[in-house]
Amino acid sequence: MKFSDFLFPESQNADGDFAVIDQALQEAELCEQLGYDAVWLAEHHFDGGCAYVDPVVFASAIAARTQRIKIGFAVAQMALQHPIRFAEQIALVDNISHGRILVGVGRGTAYNFYEFRGYGIDPSEAQGRLLEVEEILTRCWLGENFAYSGKFWQVQLPELRPQVYQKPHPPLIRACSGMESTLEMARQGRPFLMNLQSDQTTQERLDGFRQTMADSGYDDQTIVRTVEESWAWRNVVVAETDAAAESLGVPAFLSMRAYLADNRRRLNTPEEQAAQAAAMGGAARDSVDLGLIFGSPETVRERLEAVERTGIGGLIIHFRLGSMSWEATENSLRLFAEQVAPQFISTAIA
């Protein structure tokens, strides 16, 4: 099981954006020093929930400051991207990083309707736009004289330059929010990114994923490799003692969820809020019990053993939750790398 850091820094006040962005760059550099496998970047707009906003631009800064660590998106919102511009940007960052980019893609946020409005996009088009952009990306990365005509995009170009560094192209991994979308990736033989879920739900989805791949004719070796290339999200806070981790992590987690909910109350219309409420009931992401792992290194190791048993290839770990200070985050990252990850040494941090 691989371990990575989800760089998803919140900035509640515009005056604090610079400091948070600068600290996120420091966090990426620290993760490389500590041996994490990857850092993952989010994309959210207009609300301070993700201070650096643009994962592609931020990936280029990280690529220039690091040498080894992989840089992934969890996720880039395809409904908000021009596919050719995005393809060019990825090709450039793939070259800058010497092939360290993992292209995690999704339809766009399901609940921040104001992000779609800011870009002039109808949210009902998000899934269709995702499917078209995925096809355009893979085809224009692979060949010359590319043309595409779809519902949303009509493009034609002689050749994409620069070409991608990774061949045939960087890994393209789709985020899946439910079982059916997860099983669709299994039928296609593609790895997936799983949003924040309980260990039980994680196990159920992976069991279904493996079985569907087998039913679709994939051999055992391919199934194992595809699961190893899939990732799941967890929020983790490590401190010297369970009590210290609880006093730090639980308020930060609750503050983070409250800030996100307040943004949606302020920025979504009443109709959008009603649609959001109907879709979000009982989400693990809002539960301390299901959505947060905290404790001493020993306690966190024990909790992660259950995750490892699911067989997931890697964890996208959100360490800096909400208003947590950089100092507390750095301590958590170091304790995890030095006292938690070595217990999973056969497949984790080298």
Polypeptide structure, described:
- By secondary structure, the protein is α/β, with parallel strands linked by helices.
- About 50% of the residues lie in helices and about 15% in strands.
- It is built from 13 helices and twelve strands.
- The chain has helices at about 15-35, 55-65, 85-95, 115-120, 125-140, 180-190, 200-215, 220-230, 240-265, 270-280, 290, 295-310, 325-340, and strands spanning about 1-5, 40, 70-75, 75, 100-105, 145-150, 155, 170-175, 190-195, 230-240, 295, 315-320.
- The strands form two sheets. An eight-stranded parallel β-barrel has the order 1-2-3-5-8-9-10-12, surrounded by seven helices. A two-stranded antiparallel ribbon has the order 6-7.
- Helix 12 (about 295-310) crosses helix 13.
- The longest helix is centred in the last third of the chain and has 26 residues, at about 240-265.
- The N and C termini lie close together (about 10 Å).
- The model has no long low-confidence stretch (mean pLDDT about 95).
What is the CA-based Rg, rounded? 20 Å
Our estimate of the beta-strand percent is 15-25%
What is the strand tally?
12
Distance between the termini: 11 Å
Provide the spatial order of strands within the biggest beta sheet.
Answer: 1-2-3-5-8-9-10-12
Shape: globular
Helix content: 40-55%
Order of helices and strands: EHEHEEHEHHEEEHEHHEHHHEHEH
Task: Describe the structure using short key phrases.
two-stranded antiparallel ribbon, 13 helices, 8-stranded parallel barrel, alpha/beta, 49% helix, 350 residues
